[in-house]
Fold this sequence. Notes:
With 250 residues, the chain is mostly helical. Among the domains are: 107 residues, no CATH class; 56 residues, no CATH class. The chain is built from 9 helices and no strands. The longest helix has 42 residues.
Amino acid sequence: MDRQDQKQQYFNDYNNRTHVIGRIVSAVTLVLLVGAPFVIGTYLGAMPDMHAVLKGFLAVGIVWTVSSVVEFLVYTPMLGAGGGYLAFITGNLINMKIPCAMNAREIAGTRAGTPENEIISTLSIATSSLVTIVVLALGVLLLVPLQPVLQSPALQPAFENVVPALFGAMAYMYYRKNLKLALAPLLLMSALFILVPSLISSTSMMIIPSGALTIVLAYLIWKKRGTILDPPGTDLSGAEDKEDTEGTAK
């Protein structure tokens, strides 16, 4: 067995162990999340009306169920097994975990679907989770002393625009690679949200049409030019083959 086969075998074993641990921890987390309200309600003697709970869940649960499936299908290939389990268990994907993983992948220069991306994604999300815990702990300790500052009217606009600012910076990093490909879904979604403001509350659902449009445009560009990101005449595959050959020689 050569070195490449050994690497692939080790990666397969790593993924298998990751799935075993991830499924166990996911099941435990689900039981704890769902069971906590019932335990608290039983202990305090304040169990809610389950009929009302069911009606409330059905009112929003169907929408969020579809959204959850869409997020799973979109984010899991980007994060890999280890990163996916960590991100979905710890939560806060859109605001924290996804930008962190994408930025780490950009810095490391890894590609989605590779073992290197799997490791980078897992390490970045694990680090993000630990940093989040530390920041939350400090926030709880300093909440009372900093309350006058945090409630200052001058800072409220900044708190309301943290997520747009974060994703604007992250988006531009990818948009600049192919502005033509990014322009069509950006303009379409912007027009839809302006003309139909009610869609703003369904941003997760709008990932489907915008993603489908982007995939179709990328396919058409690829069919016409043979590549998506590079200018016509650039042979990406040849460059990669050359790099692989030089790496093997070294």
